[in-house]
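Support request, please re-run this one:
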Amino acid sequence: MAVFVTRRIPAEGLRVLSQAGGCLVQQWDSEEPVPRAELLAGVAGKRGLLCLLSDRIDREVLEAAGPGLKVISTMSVGFDHLSLDEIKKRGIRVGYTPDVLTDATAELSVALLLAACRRLPEAAEQVKNGGWTTWKPLWMCGYGLSGSTVGIIGLGRIGQAVARRLKPFGVKKFLYAGTCPKSECAAEFAAEFVPLTRLAEESDFVVVTCALTPATQGMCNKDFFGRMKKTSVFINTSRGAVVNQDDLYDALAHGQIAAAGLDVTTPEPLPTAHPLLSLKNCGMVSDIYCQLSVRAGSDSAAHRECHVCHEKHHGSAGSQQPAGRAARRAHAPRAAAVTARAPLPQSSRTWRSLPWRSLMDQSCASSPLQQHASGACGEGTAL
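Re-run finished. Output below.
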């Protein structure tokens, strides 16, 4: 089976691939996203595709791949870059990694919240430029978490992980908004399910951890920010398109809200001349911390990042059939030989060929991805 990998993936993932056989991989061997033309060329005639969040897998890509494409795996928690309707029409199976970045993203969300509410970037800048002259009782005062109300938009895995980390800070009340109540999950934090408008009006801190869907796109807009308190802090670690950035700029610039912390924008990276970057009360970081967490992760995490489902001769998805194990043993000597002798192609294309091990995907009937496709309420659909 021929597979195309759209980026340089973690070393552990490559080790898994190189130690197994049965498939030949063509890889875009670069830290930078594969150009569109190279993506269309690379996927042609392949039976498997391993992509990243930055790769838009739409009808054009699927048509370039041809009818032989049977599986798509994405090394990401989100899957809004996949045209699920087109993929479903073609009977292509999908794998993703829903829980691999939960802890890292939750930690980054809390770090952004603390930095924004305690004005850490501003304070650090004052130290560097000589603005810190002496102790002043009212200088650089921020906002505390103790006794506060925190509103979480999207109480899925990441939303719950954020609440779990914020609870020891003395948060008085948790509110959450979404497509449906999650009473069992919310009980841990005594969180109350409320409409989005009420969450905006009552929260001292708003943390956005929802999926990007047609319903959530541009959801945090002028009306939303207008309902927030002037002392509120806004944090977004979900997707940039959930926020109307022009409205966010206006809210921050005119004191409608106190501060914001972002690790996602539209586009990414944000142009250095963008108005949001000129604001002292808007802190931004890239998602490199999450990426580093993946690369430093366990063997199991690396395996999950490389998920591609078994083809029929390797056994059905969700099981390990003897035929699959026998096939891998039969191909093992060939795989080692190919790995040893395969140099990088001498061409303008940054492609690399490797032997591939077909791993099981996670797209079982009860997965959040399948629930998203069918419109059910799940991790992939909840706000």
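The first strand starts at residue 2 and ends at 5. The CA atoms of residues 112 and 261 lie 5 Å apart.
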